[in-house]
Design brief:
This protein is of the alpha/beta class and about 350 residues long. The strands form two sheets. Strands 2-1-3-12-11-4-5-10-8-9 form a ten-stranded mixed β-sheet, with helices on both faces. Strands 6-7 form a two-stranded antiparallel ribbon.
Length: about 350
């Protein structure tokens, strides 16, 4: 079968790591009898350079013509002086909204070979870290109305509106419960219901869903307590679901307790194709073009694409197993190489992983 993939190579190291993920996908195609057809699409800083805006007119159409989207990274200091409405990050917000990508899936998994890289105590790490952050992606304060105005006695004042509807909460909550059924059947819903009206609505909708998914263990947790619990004992979590801003913060925290931000993938999905898959790291312009980048997060993002967009479970597992075998063998790129370890280049890393594919 042929699968159509839109490639947003992006900025900084984005083109390098996307190129390496494509090599892995092509090898998977050879081994399992699939073909992948790629379409290059502009978004972010490179799009600003090419046509003056971060989300070109034809980007949405090209992405919707594909089955999934693989994105490298966007942004960098080159575009820091751009007006707010044409910053590279605006392209990300635009494509999420255009494709209806309301659910961001961020796995935070500690791979055994890198246990020593975690900043947490050994006794905490030994319990294991394997949680899935499910973040609502197209609502809340990031998409609410904004205002800036002058007051008579307080100077300039600004407002950002956080708004959520029952429908928005229900669809992200249902996504979390369905994911939990495929994992360890436990959902933690994170809110600030002791203060925010939106969180009180969030909690009431989640409670109704919990009754429907009675086979899944459910609990509420306030966001400040969640931040503490992630560093105290992340092993207690399976699927964590929350609104946009809380999820933005907590997913970054969860990724750091694994000690390896360069290895973590993500998926942004909606109710229809295509989903968007990307590494959580940035564009790292300081090492762009030097063949030093770690491509594993993008390679694992491609594995998530195979699993969640194409339902190719064995193929996704083959990539993840190859990455584990690579790490267990002691191979490292510069970001993970300790003292006395000769780091592999970006392309050498991919070569090793492809050689370990089964």
């Amino acid at each position: 079968m042929d699968y159509k993939i839109a490639l947003i190579r992006g900025d900084g190291i984005g083109p390098e790591v996307v190129g390496e993920a494509v090599k892995v996908l092509n090898k998977i195609g050879e081994k399992f009898g699939h073909t992948f057809t790629y379409t290059d699409v502009l978004l972010g800083g490179c799009a600003i350079d090419a046509c003056g805006k971060p989300f070109p007119d034809d980007t949405e159409e090209k992405c919707k013509a594909c089955d999934a989207v693989l994105l490298g990274a966007v942004g960098g200091p080159k575009w820091d002086s751009c007006p707010a409405d044409i910053r590279p990050e605006k392209g990300l917000l635009a494509i999420r909204k255009a494709l209806g990508l309301y659910a961001n899936l961020r796995p935070a998994t500690l791979r055994p070979a890198l246990a020593d890289a975690s900043p947490l105590k050994k006794e905490t790490v030994d319990k294991g870290i394997d949680l899935m952050m499910v973040r609502e992606l197209t609502g809340g304060i990031y998409f609410g109305k904004r205002d800036r105005y002058e007051t008579e006695d307080r100077g300039t004042e600004c407002t950002d509106l956080m708004a959520y509807s029952e429908k928005e909460i229900e669809r992200i909550g249902r996504r979390a419960f369905e994911l939990a059924r495929l994992r360890r059947k436990k959902v933690t819903s994170v809110d600030k219901a002791n203060v925010l009206e939106t969180s009180r609505l969030w909690r009431s909708v989640m409670h109704k869903l919990a009754e429907e998914y009675s086979d899944v263990e459910y609990s509420d947790m306030l966001v400040d307590n969640t931040a503490m619990q992630i560093v105290r004992d992340p092993s207690q979590f399976d699927v964590v679901v929350t609104e946009n801003m809380f999820g933005d913060i907590l997913s970054d925290e969860a990724s750091m307790v694994t000690g390896s931000i360069g290895l973590l993938p993500s998926a942004s999905i909606g109710d229809t194709a295509p989903g968007l898959y990307e590494p959580i790291h940035g564009s790292a312009p300081d090492i762009a073009g030097q063949n030093k980048a770690n491509p594993i997060a993008t390679i694992l993002s491609a594995a998530m694409m195979l699993r969640y967009s194409f339902d190719l479970m064995d193929e996704a597992q083959a990539i993840e197993d190859a990455v584990d075998a690579y790490l267990n063998a002691g191979y490292r790129t510069a970001d993970l190489a300790g003292e006395g370890v000769t780091p592999l280049s970006c392309t050498e890393c991919t070569e090793k992983i492809i050689a370990l594919l089964k």
